[in-house]
Design goal:
Blueprint lengths: L1 H28 L2 H5 L7 H8 L3 H14 L3 E4 L5 E4 L2 H7 L11 H21 L10 H23 L6 H7 L2 E5 L5 H9 L4 E6 L2 H13 L6 E5 L10 E7 L8 H11 E12 L11 H19 L12 H11 L4 E7 L3 E7 L1
Parallel strand pairs: 3-4, 3-6, 4-5, 6-7
Antiparallel strand pairs: 1-2, 7-9, 8-9
Helix pairs in contact: 1-4, 1-6, 3-4, 6-7, 6-12, 7-9
Length: 351
């Protein structure tokens, strides 16, 4: 009975989280989070007036966030309730430049529900579901979800952890960002290393267009270029650094992609493989981070891989052992775990 009660409580918690995910997005779209960002106490009526919505909507939204622990409350002696964001809560929900900003992840969740009927049909038919077929919310959510980590760790921790790469980029190097998506990672590197040239490749045309616009917005159009190309056939050679950011496990033929990277590298070049953090055994990944990545893998990563040739379907929790095997099959002889964060592991591959 105790175990049953615990499972019921977990299910109730999950249902509440799934419902409140929509409200987090609502708060972004209607300006609720921005209106709360200053951390000052506010009533439901004041939030409603500030954002131009009826008070009952603001009241229920605020109450749901308070019940979720996303907003703090204060009740005075008359029973009047005010709501406020703590600095920590603001970092997660209101400040898009914060290293802890996570509101973008809810757009990924939304895309999963939008695509659920189609993915269910493909599963039953034994077919994949390509990245390009997903609802556009996925592309927006992916950009926003991974952007804080790239801005926080990429140039200050990850690249310096690779042997000789920082110095090469400072002097001027050729870099390929494979599966670049909206080009956030490319732009972050290009801004820090203006002497280097960065080439972003992605097979998804809309992402290439967004990456080009993003680079212009960030002032790095001069040393970046974005080209529609597959991971096993993008142009160019003698790259000093080839990067795969959270994308190799999505590919149908990861070994083929790594083979092409090895062929496109300069003789002393490096491949930086950034993947979701995971252990090699299932038991290593039965934690909150693994829960997110296994769920995302079921609905996004695995269908994407199965929609491509080979369909290796490594999954988002592939683990270092399977990734090293793929690298060795592609012809790499050196494989090193350079560094990690609570969400990602950074692997260094050399010929």
């Amino acid at each position: 009975m105790e175990r049953l009660q615990a499972l019921v409580f977990q299910a109730v918690t999950d249902i509440g989280a799934a419902l409140n995910g929509a409200l987090v997005i609502l708060g972004t779209d209607l300006g609720f989070w921005s209106a709360l960002a200053d951390g000052q106490p506010i009533t439901a009526a004041e939030l409603a007036a500030r954002c131009g919505v009826p008070t009952p909507y603001a009241d229920q939204w605020l109450s749901a966030q308070a019940a979720s622990g996303n907003i703090d409350t204060e009740t005075d002696s008359t029973g009047a309730v005010t709501f406020r964001l703590s600095p920590e809560q603001a970092m997660i929900f209101a400040d898009q430049d914060s290293p802890a900003y996570l509101a973008g992840g809810y757009h990924i969740v939304r895309s999963v529900y939008e695509d659920l009927p189609q993915i269910e049909e493909r599963m039953e038919a034994g077919q994949g579901f390509g990245w390009h077929e997903h609802d556009p919310e996925l592309f927006l959510g992916t950009e926003q979800f991974f952007r804080p980590g790239y801005r926080t760790h990429l140039v200050d921790e990850w690249l310096p952890a690779l042997e000789g790469v920082h110095d090469a980029l400072t002097a001027g190097a050729r870099v390929a960002d494979v599966g670049c998506g909206h080009g956030v990672s490319t732009a972050v590197m290009a801004a820090r290393y203006p002497a280097s040239s960065f080439f972003g490749f992605d097979y998804h045309e809309a992402s290439v267009e967004r990456a080009t616009a993003h680079a212009a917005e960030q002032g790095v159009a001069g040393n970046t270029a974005f080209i529609r190309a597959a991971a096993d056939s993008y142009p160019g050679s003698d790259y000093d650094l080839i990067c795969f950011f959270d994308c190799l496990h999505d590919m149908g033929d990861p070994v083929g992609a790594l083979k092409h990277a090895r062929e496109a590298l300069s003789p002393d070049g490096t491949v930086m493989l950034v993947e979701p953090i995971a252990g090699d055994a299932l038991a290593d990944n039965l934690n909150p981070v693994g829960r997110i990545f296994y769920a995302a893998s079921t609905m996004i990563c695995t269908p994407s891989s199965l929609a491509q040739d080979v369909g290796a379907a490594l999954g988002a929790q592939a683990g270092p052992g399977r990734l090293q095997k793929a690298a060795e099959l592609a012809g790499f002889t050196r494989f090193r775990r350079a560094t990690e964060t609570p969400v990602n592991m950074v692997l260094e591959l050399r010929p």
